[in-house]
Amino acid sequence: MALLEREAELAAVERGVDQLCDSGRPGACPTDAVVPSRDFGVPATDSGTPAAGFGAPVTDAGPPRTRTGGLLAFTGPAGIGKTTLLRETAARVAARSGTVLYACGGEQEQEVGFHVVRRLLRPLLPALDERELRAELGSWYDLAAPAAGLPAPGGAVVPHPHGVRAALDRLFAHLAVRHAPLAVLVDDVHWADPASLGWLAGFASLAPRLPLLCVLGYDPRELRPDAAGFRAAVDGPARLPFPLAELSTEAVGELVGEFFAEAEAEAGPGSDAHAAADEADAAFTEECRKLTGGNPRAMTELLHRAHEAGLKPHRDSRARLAELGPAAPAADVLHRLENLGPDCVRLCWAVAVLGADATLPFAARVAGLRGEAARSAADRLRGARILEGEPGGADAPVRFTHPSLAGEVYRAIPASIRTALHGQTAAALAADRSTRGSAVRHLLEVHPDGDPALVGELRRAAHAYTAAGAPDAAYRCLGRALREPPAPGDRPAVLYELAAAAFRSDAPAAAVHPLRAALAEPACEGEPRVRAVRLLVRALGRTGHPGEALRTLESEVRRARAPAERDALRAELSLWRALHSVDGGGAGDEDPSLPALRAWHALRRGEPAATVLRHAEEAVAGLSWTDDPWGCEVPALVARTFVHCGHLERAEELLREGIAACERAGLHSDRYLGLARALLPERPGEPGKRAVPR
């Protein structure tokens, strides 16, 4: 049936597909295409220069083309037509020999870090060559690979989530060229895992400047509280989403007539198809709209039930129509599911628990059904419009006909049975590593039982999530491991890892309590204790408690017995006093080098640019290029800080002041003047004129 009252949305889809597919030759890349950077640092090579390709023209051997991308967003409640519009977009791109990457946020997969990103890339993984990607992406490959599910060596450095998101941008920009024309479709974004949602928030604003089409569907009312960045990116003044409205009475009447005409036509010759369409009178139409609120999905289900009950679309059927059952899709699905028999219920529950990893053999295994019984149940569920998938396709995914059905069925499973199904699924995945999917999200749902193996599995998963740049997913795994609980000897390590994950998730307040608990454990001694103290001090400082941080350090210095531990804590105490000025000195008698050190330290830690610049400006007031003992080193450090923050003119101004100060002091050949001039190279195309490098 046609998409009714979606003319504006379909026109926008057609324009986007036209811009993507009808301009330029496939595979060519514009010589002036730029991969836009996000507002954070740029990975560098070992020499300290920016990694090749970021924020620079992407060139290709082929001639230029004018392929342009775009961003579309469709919003509204479940059943309003978002999924249908995304599938229509996919069909139009595929019809023009385009590549479609599709993923759907899952209510049960929100605990899996980068689930949506990996679902998008899964169809292309077999065709991606690691050597080619490394040659194209450079140092970005190692950042993107763990999040994307690509082969990646274990790195000693924990990546910052911002860097991982920027690397994923580079990866998708590369795929947009190599697999052009490319469409990236994400349905039910409101159920996307936090790591993928964080990436989408930036990618949505970059997509219009990349040669790909990005189409999103989501319910604004269901977006996570921490999705403000995504809202800002999609709801910008130049990218207003399309809010999908309920069908009008006229559209409902057209849908009713069309549905019954098709149903009667399928019944064979001699049917009264045209009469059925004509009999869709206003009273019947108005009753349908009243029962469904004009929701297309609810309308379709109601009409199916009416036809199965033998009703005709005229006023005499109104009373029976209201008695057919609840018009709410969730209640309707559960009612139909109960009438299909226990095998169908068990298989449907298994598919709901498995989510995106469901195949018929695997779902049958979790449900405890034999082959023939599972196939028969699957056929009945397909006939009842609950499941869809290829009949007889052993490895083909089995999914619900509408994404929201998965959540509706999942929530209807009795809690004890749901927990048992998660346990069976985790055991099946652990026993058969060839099965696609991760056991971690299922382990999060089983009852705590003091199992050391489960604690170890959750900690390994947390380490993998941390390496992929998804510390929030690591935090959930470690929180569950703590409830298992771990063995007494492992408890301090689990608490420390939990706090570290919170700190990396920009939630330092959530790190304080686990670290205090770790320090209270008898087994927390030696190097693990020093690490915990250091992180606790940083968490207290980030939450506005520098005095408490100082007292904690002083107490730990007094407590330490081992020389190495005591020396490490004393060094930390000295650094803390220097950087935070909590040793009693007032602002007037503070060493002028301290604000400069604070600015550089904040920059290296990834603090917000506003914080770094505030410290840098504080440092400028008391700086001198010629005074001992520091001389030029401290102002040069401040100038580099301005450069890294993108304030190039401010850095140039500071360096020129330094050169003038050195010349006034007669230091025409001194190292001070040489350093200032070295940081002020010539402007391109203007010999003899100096400027900060861009």
UniProtKB/TrEMBL annotation:
InterPro entries: AAA+_ATPase (IPR003593), AAA_16 (IPR041664), P-loop_NTPase (IPR027417), TPR-like_helical_dom_sf (IPR011990). Signal peptide: none annotated. It comes from the Bacteria. The keyword Nucleotide-binding applies. SMART domains: AAA. It holds the Pfam family AAA_16. Residues 68-238 form the AAA+ ATPase domain. Keywords: ATP-binding, Nucleotide-binding. This is AAA family ATPase.
